[in-house]
Design goal:
By secondary structure, the chain is mostly beta strands. The protein contains no helices and eleven strands. Strand 4 and strand 5 form a beta hairpin. The radius of gyration is 14 Å and the shape is globular.
Length: 118
């Protein structure tokens, strides 16, 4: 079992920055991918960025150039640094960890609210 705990959300003005954290605990597979998703009210949950256990990262077009995903293996934490935030970035941001060798190992955090005021 893996537990994911997100933090770092909050209220920020348009143009501001936030850094979200996702701390994982439990038994983590050797080959995994950690992703950030976001879900605005009334909309589907969409991917924002991913980082694979061997290092590669991917970014969704919606926030490309304004977010950076990184991780600290010493603390099992994945970060999402966001800059130049816009009101349309307002959403609940979720962390997801998947075992790339076993689709059944798929975990979500509880989410953290990001609100960007205009």
């Amino acid at each position: 079992q893996v537990k994911l705990v997100e933090s770092g959300g909050g209220l920020v003005q348009s143009g501001g920055s936030l850094r979200l954290s996702c701390e994982a605990s439990g038994t983590i597979a050797s080959f995994f991918v950690v992703s950030w998703y976001r879900q605005a009210p009334g909309k589907q949950r969409d991917p924002v960025a991913s980082i694979f256990s061997r290092g590669p990262t991917t970014y969704a077009d919606s926030m490309k150039g304004r977010v950076t995903i990184s991780r600290d293996d010493t603390t099992n934490t994945v970060y999402l640094q966001m800059k130049n935030l816009k009101p349309e970035d307002t959403a609940v941001y979720y962390c997801r960890l998947q075992n790339v060798q076993n689709v059944g190992d798929d975990y979500w955090g509880q989410g953290t609210q990001v609100t960007v005021s205009s």
